[in-house]
Automatic annotation (TrEMBL):
Native organism: Lentzea miocenica
Enzyme class, UniProt record, top EC level: hydrolase
Family membership: Belongs to the peptidase A24 family.
EC number in record: 3.4.23.-
Protein name: A24 family peptidase
Sample GO molecular function, one term: hydrolase activity
Domain Prepilin type IV endopeptidase peptidase per the UniProt entry, residue ranges: 28-127
Pfam name, any one: Peptidase_A24
Domain of life according to the entry: Bacteria
Keyword Hydrolase set for record: yes
Length: 150
């Protein structure tokens, strides 16, 4: 059942990206985003075996604007790292590594909206769950995909 759901969501995201003539990073974000979000929701982990290759692939896709991509990664990832250092229970190390990778595709004016939107998605997950820990990875992935595609 999970495979059918995964394929359906992926097909839907790719269709939206295709209709909107989205950049190639949208397709990569859709695939990695679904897989990483499912893993994070189920296991509260974002494995390096997926986050690091995704970040590298996104950086390669943004090679035409390398300076802006590296700056976006440094700012977006750096802010998440600062939160991790300030309040370790609030954010995991996987979220920080994910934020560095996702920052490569976010234009500088989109960094603040990405942070706000990802926090809103995480808050909605927390309201739906009502207790316990809530992963921030799905919020980061959903916000980044939406801002780069729509």
């Amino acid at each position: 059942m999970t495979t059918v759901l995964l394929a359906s969501v992926l097909g839907s995201l790719w269709t939206v990206a295709d209709v909107l003539d989205a950049p190639p990073s949208s397709y990569l974000l859709a695939w990695f985003g679904i897989v990483l979000a499912l893993i994070d929701l189920r296991h509260h982990r974002l494995p390096d075996a997926l986050t690091l290759p995704m970040g590298a692939a996104l950086l390669l896709l943004e090679f035409h604007r390398l300076g802006a991509a590296v700056l976006g990664a440094a700012i977006f990832g750096g802010v998440h790292l600062a939160v991790r250092r300030w309040r370790p229970p609030v954010m995991g190390g996987g979220d920080v590594k994910l934020a560095f990778g996702l920052g490569t595709v976010l234009a500088l004016p989109m960094l603040l909206p990405a942070a706000i939107l990802s926090s809103a998605v995480t808050l909605c997950l927390a309201i739906g769950k009502r207790r316990g820990r809530v992963p921030h990875g799905p919020g980061l992935l959903a916000a980044t995909w939406a801002l780069t595609t729509l």
